[in-house]
Amino acid sequence: MRSKEELSQMDVKYLVHPAVNFKEHRKKGPRIIVEGKGTRVKDIDGNEYLDAFSSLWNVVAGHGQEAIGKAITEQLSQLEFYSGWFGFATESAIELAAKVVNLMPKEWNMGHVLFTCGGSDTNDTNIKLARMYWELKGQEKKKKIISRNFAFHGVTYGSMMATGIEFFKTYFEPYPPGFLYVAPPYCYRCALGLAYPECGVACAKTLEEAILQEGPDTVAAFIGEPVMGAGGIIIPPDEYWPMIQKICDTYDVLFINDEVITGFGRTGKMFGCMNWDVHPDLVSIAKGLTSGYLPLGGSIMSNKVFDSIAENLPDYLTFLHGFTYNNHPVSCAAGLAALKIIEEQKLVENVAKMGAYLKDRLKGLYDHRSVGDIRSIGLMAAVEFVKDKETKEPLGDLPMESPRRIEALMWERGIYARAIPTESIALAPPFTISKEEIDMVVDALDSSIAQMESEMLH
Fold first, then answer.
1. Is the pLDDT of residue 288 over 90?
2. Which domains does the chain have, with CATH numbers?
3. How far apart are CA 145 and CA 158, in angstroms?
4. ∠ at Cα 338 (332, 343), nearest 5°?
5. Which end of the chain is more exposed for a tag (fewer CB within 10 A), N or C?
6. 277: confidence class by pLDDT, cuts 50, 70, 90
7. Calpha distance 376→442 (Å, rounded)
């Protein structure tokens, strides 16, 4: 095995990392992770860390699940790959498609799955499907996609344009047309300057206003995360999603439900939208689908969408969308094994139970001068930092300065949490986490906040 120094040099010389400052990375080098078991990972120096962010939201069943590795190995020994194009299929892809569809509420009327490589290309796929659906129905003007400020839907060109976090678009112009944004249900910093519940959930009504302003005959779909993840773990009021659903139904706008982060149990329900009364037309899944063991996402089409495309597509045309690794048999085998663990170990139920405990433990952090807001549902939570609780002025001279300091301090304490926009530190641990481990995370966060305040608040 190569030494840490040699690997670090090779990393800096050859490997590109998303979401790093290249100049800073050249100086610091990588954090090299070599082992994982349960909620813990080890670095190359043998230091152990509690992974309180499931790596990137996705290792939901925990690290080192041998059953998933075994399923991968067995599929590799039988058939490593065959294309999903031109009507070819593999057993694992067929089985996983049936499994995923049948996990969804019957009232959603979901019917067909195209497995992708991850969340970004899944959302790209669903944006294209929404436009295709309306074009084939003879409504060629229905092209526009409405998203929300603070939304994150990916970084391919289509999904990037649906993303409402502006710095993800920096330097990537010119932008494709046909995307617009409405207010998020971010009650702590309401874009409309209102207060819940007196506001009447006016943020939902901005969708109706945008549809009417653009013209209902020009809007193809609204895309939204049940709980906005990377944009700040923004949890909507209970009235929000039913209002959105009614607006979409009224103006004949498809609803693309982005379950990339919330799918397969993160909120304490199998899918995030099950917390509210909604019925999406297209669903995007990824991350928890394989628990991160192999890349896989999925575009799930309602019977309404699939049947309409199938019936209206001209006889001389095939369905002209796809990627080389759609319906990959090894990734699908990993997905089947991961979902079996989630069900057999009752991990969604554990999320609901541990999520309630986490929410209760986090309340004590309000005693800190810098803690302005705490948002929590299931096993996803954010703590937002401010210089002044009255004015809600951000803490720090640079964007995300205080949560990045918290992230570093928690890493020193053996915990991985993540700084996110909205000046927040985020938690999203594996579904296998215990009460004792939640105590470790919150205690480390508590002491890290205290140290950050001693450094940054005067």
1. yes
2. 31-61+346-456 (3.90.1150.10), 69-344 (3.40.640.10)
3. 10
4. 125
5. C
6. confident
7. 13
Question: Can you say whether residue 54 is alpha, beta or left, with left for phi > 0 and alpha for psi between -120 and 50 degrees?
Answer: left
- The enclosing H or E element of 256 equals strand 254-258
Our CA angle for 282, 284, 286, nearest 5°, is 160
Chain centre distance of CA 13: 30
pLDDT digits (tens, 9 = 90+) for 94-135: 999 999 999 999 999 999 999 999 999 999 999 999 999 999
* Residue 373 token pair: 């807001």
Helix or strand holding residue 412 (H, E): helix 401-412
Residue 60 token pair? 């939901």
- Tell me the chain's radius of gyration from C-alpha atoms: 22
Residues ≥6 apart with Cβ < 8 Å to 288: 57, 58, 60, 263, 264, 265, 266, 338, 342
Write out the two tokens for 425.
């530190």
Backbone angles phi, psi at 270, to 5 degrees: -55, -40
State the CB neighbour count (10 A cutoff) for residue 397.
7
Record the pTM. Answer: 0.96
